[in-house]
Description:
- The protein is mostly beta strands.
- Helices cover 11% and strands 40% of the residues.
- The strands form two sheets. Strands 1, 2, 3, 4, 6, 11, 12, 13 and 15 form a nine-stranded antiparallel beta sheet that branches.
- A hairpin with a 2-residue loop joins strand 12 and strand 13 (228-234).
Amino acid sequence: MTPSGKKTVRSRTRAQRLNLLLVGFSILLLSACLPASPPPPQPTDTLPPPTETPTPTIVWFPPTPTFTPFPTPELLPTENMRPGIGELIYADDFDQADAWSLSATSTGSVALGVDELTIAIGAVDTYLFSVRQDWLLTDFYLEITASPSLCQDMDEYGVLLRVSPAMDLYRFSLSCNGQVRLDRIYRGQASSPQPWMMSGAVPPGAPSTARLGVWAVGSELRFFVNDFYQFTVTDPLLTSGGVGVFARSTVDWPVTVNFSALRIFAVTPAGE
């Protein structure tokens, strides 16, 4: 290579080095002008407590209305409340199949057992009854034993009085929560000469047993449970008729009541 050629190569090498230095210097200047990157977040010593979400309260049942209890009447001695009771005129131990109206349906049955008549109900809001076919009573004193084996709350059972062929009647009811009342069915219309009242003598719930008593003379009717006086009703509409028994379900729960030891006594009105 000639001396002039060597000189040209050195000049190019110096120019390339100068260019590299200028590029590096430009990069340094640009880096100095850019904003500094924020430092990475440092971990904290403790985490903030989690926010508590309140758990909703489960309402399992609807509100129950406030129950206002009926006042319990004072139980009075009954010695002088059943005057004029005389001889026994009828005794029925429910051993005659043709004497009572019996039935069996999809909702329940009325059947005779051993010395008892049983009304069994398997449907809600069902009313079953049985009437003695051949008795016509005017003035009398009646006693019968009712023994519910399944019943609760306002399920009811009891005795029918002065039943006519048109099914006019009085209905003496005991509820399974310890109340009593008297209904009257007259010309197809029901009313309550004595509305529900606490008895003080009706055993609540089941199984239990109650001895029902009815003193009927003329238009005056007096009612008893387990020998304790309950109330008196004076009503002239029904003066004679037959007798029967009944049970009624009010809730979705079976009702079974056994009736036994029906006794009818003569009653002599005062002054005779």
